[in-house]
Each structure stands twice: as C-alpha cells, then as structure tokens.
Amino acid sequence: MDLFFGASTNASREQQSAKVRVEERPAKTPNASVNAPTDTSPTRRARPQQGDQTHKEDRRRSQQKDQSHSEERRRPQHDDRKRRRRLEEHRDERHTLKKLPTSESSRLSPRNSDLVNANRERVGSLPPSPRPRKSPVRAERKKPASSVAVSSLGQEIERCASVPVQASNVRRQKALVSAMPSPVDDREAGSDEPVAVVSSVDAVRQSESQYEDYFRWQDGEDRLQTIELHLPASGATESYSLLMPKSFDRESESRDEYLPVNDLISTVRAIALYLVDSSDFRHKVCGDKENGILRQLERARNRLNGRDFVGAVHEFNRLLDLERVSSNIGPVFDKSHIPSDLAIHIVEQTYNRVVAPTVNMLRQYKAFSNNVYGEILPTLVSEFIERAGISHDTTFIDLGCGIGNVVLQVAAQTGCFSCGIEIMKVPARFARRQAQEFEQRMRLYKLNHGAVQVWQGDFCESTDVQRMLPRADVVLVNNYAFDSALNQTLLQMFLDLKEGTKIISLKPFVTPDHKISARNIYSPESILTVRRYQYWSQCVSWTDSGGEYFVQTVDRSRLNEFLAQRGML
Description:
Strand content: 5-15%
Largest sheet: 7 strands, mixed
C-alpha cells in the first residue's frame, strides 16, 4: 500500500508540473504551428475587455449621479429666484392698483372695471412681499422719517439735503432731484396753482455743507447769509445766498461753480440795462468806473466787505421800487427779439438752480454710444440763431435736446415755438423741470417767450417728431457722437422736411462736393446743400478747442433740374 501510495503521489506531482509548464508557454500567435499545444483554461483575454467596459459604465453612472445631485442643489435656488420675482410682480401690481383713484376706475368701461376689481381682490389675498435685507451699517445711517408733512419747496429741499454725507451719493442726488418742482407737463390740466420758483438760497441749500461764508464780517456785525433782491414783476423778490463753494478759487473763478454773489451782480446789471425804461435809473445803477451801484457791488465783492455789499443791494431795491411806482418797468428793446446777453443770463440762472446741484447724474451713460452726453454752449447757440435766421415765426426742433438748454435759449431769444426730444430719462426730466423754472423766471422779469415743449423718447420712433418734422423750419442735431447707422436713419427722416428747412449738425449729412448722378437720384443726400462754418474755443462742453459745424438746406431744385434735363419728370 505504501508503494502504491507513493507511486500515485509521484504521478500526480509530474502531472501538476507539466500543467504548470503548459500554462507558462506564450499565447498562440498567427505564425505559431498548428500542432503547438494550446491553453484549455478559460479565456484570459476576455476578462480585461469585460473589466474595461464595466469600469466605463460605472464611471458614466457616477457622472450622471453627480450631475443629478448638482441639479438638485441648483433647483432650490432657481425656485427661490422665481418665487421672489413672482412676489415682486405681485407687490408692484398691488401698489399700482391701490394708487388707482376711484375717479379713474369710474372712467373705465364696465368690463375693465370688473377686471380691476377682480385684480384688487386677488392682490389683496397675496402674501406680503419679502423686504430686502439691509446691512447693519446702512441701518445705523438711516434717519427716522418726519411725521410732519412738508408744506414748502424750501423745507422739502432742506429735508433732502439733511441726508448724511456718508450715505450713497446716488441716493442723495435722487432725493434732491425728487425735491425739485414737478414739470409743467406733469401738472393737472387747467390748474392755475402757482409754482414756486427755485431761488438761489434753495439751490445752495441742496449742498449747503459744501459752502462757506463769502464775506468777512467785523465784530459786532450781523453775519448775514441771505439777502432779498427785488425783481421787475410787481411784488417779486428772490432770496440770494451770500455763501460760496469751499472749493471756489477767487483768482481763477471757474465758470463751472455756482457763485450766488456773481449771479446777483449779473441780475442787477441785466435789470438796469434791459428791463427798466429810465435813463436816470440806468445811470444811477450802471454809472461809470468809479460811481454807481454796480461799481459799489463789485468793490465790496473784491474787498470781501459784506456790510457795503448789503447796503448797495438795499439801495438798488429802493430805486427799483420807485421806478415801479412811476410805471417805468418794461423792456427797452423789441419784444420779439430779446438780447442774447439777457436770454443767456436767464437760461444760466435756470441751469444753476435745477441742474447744477445734481449735475453728476448726467454722467450716467454708456461711453462711446449714441447716448453720450454733451452740451452746446450759449455762445454757439446764438451763432446758430443768426446763421439759420430764426425769428418769432420759426418752428425749431432739437433732436437729442439733453437738458433742454438750447430749446430754452432759442425760445427766449427769438420768441419762436421751440421743442426738443431726449431719449435718456435723467436729462429729459431735467429738461422738463428747466422748462417749468424758465417759464416762471420769465414772468418774474415780465418777459414774453416762445412756447416750449419737451418730450422723452426715441426721435426715430416718436410720433410727436413725425408730426413736427413736416412743419419744422430749423432742425438741430448734435450728431457728434452718432454712428453711421443712426445718421442714415436721420437722412431718411429728412425726406419729410419741407423746402427750405435748415438742418444744423456737427457732422455733415452730405459732403460739400456731392454731385447728383443717375445712381444717387433717389438718395436723401440729393435734396440737400451744405455749407461749413468754424466755431472757436469754449463753444461746446466736451472740448476747449474749436471745431466746425454744418448747415444743410433742403433744396430740391437741383434734383428737379437734373431730372428735367433727362426727361424723367
């Protein structure tokens, strides 16, 4: 048994060693012999392929799982945003419907009234709108609102000016703008309620922290900060501030800063020269280089003598009251054409009271776009009036009027109907408020002016512009920053202009050497003739250097002559 068991053990060992030798042989290749021994064990090459495929499937499942998790994480935020947007819409709708007066609902048709009532019920059942969170810092800066209603413009401006200096400049400027009087177009039709004029004191109060005393007062003297100046209209006065900006340079006297003392002296000069028909009064006020009220005011201003300055103002008020009793108040010029110096003075007064306190809001525009803001200064506007021959029976339109300075100056200087349109909200709002202040200020000086109208919108799409262009005699386009596409659109609009209409622009719509040919007889340029003029420094706000402007005239005679010569008429 032992021999048999040992023999069987040796045989099994030989079989195992042979099997190991067979497994260690290399895999069969195409060049191997047919009789070469093969491996009968399960296929080993299929296992790695199956493993790779399984690995790819596992990786794909893992990516899908991660993507589903990320979508689940984003979905609540997206739902929150949608919910907040929906609540804000409901809040706006609730606010609009609550402001709708009963008289407004009564004018609606029965069907619309039912809709409004249904919306009121639906909005009233909505949950309260979420309030935005405020940082603790801003909550500390905010002051409690006053419970007493503001009854006058001066108190309203003073309240807005009390916004802390540390607060956001944009919020402060918006508060100041909202405190200014509403535009004429926003008042109810037929309302005879007088509108308060923005005085010099009101303009300074909007940024009073940036002003300081102009004069040096002696010990024992009253430190006056305001003074009343009498105006030509019966019982009309204006409060002038006796302060100056802290950044004001007495030597350079920058024209960009409002100095009430200089404004008062200019007003006294304008009244004496143009608005009182009395040579004796004119002599007492203007006098010569050594005498006269104007000389006293200038001497006191230069010496910072507040007592002498106040005394000269009181003397002027006394003389003007005497002339009013004598009925000598009235213009000394043709009423149909106001002198340019007087018109410019009134327009600048309007600008300093309405626009200057919040002028930084005009810089909110996109650079290098068609909405870039720039002003044409009064000197160049007076030249435009002379070149285009604008008179009291002219219809003038300014496409892109900005804050409306040109519209107001043309209406004041010529007495014509002057209108303008501006696409940006902030300048258009300033233009309307300037139009209202301009109207009231002209009444204080007992002066007539042309009708003024300002619209807010795109002049390429405005129905008001489409209605006015066929009637226009002079069109002003400050196209200095316009692109070629907008200039081409304007050219197509000019086809509606009547014969002889003049187009003033800072870039030409047609070249001076344009010639009519068979190829361009249908182009708008063929009905225009152009002349080029130069302007000098300090004529525009965006540069101190000179430039050129162009006056195009609608003249279809050249085109008709060309067509008649070729038998095309």
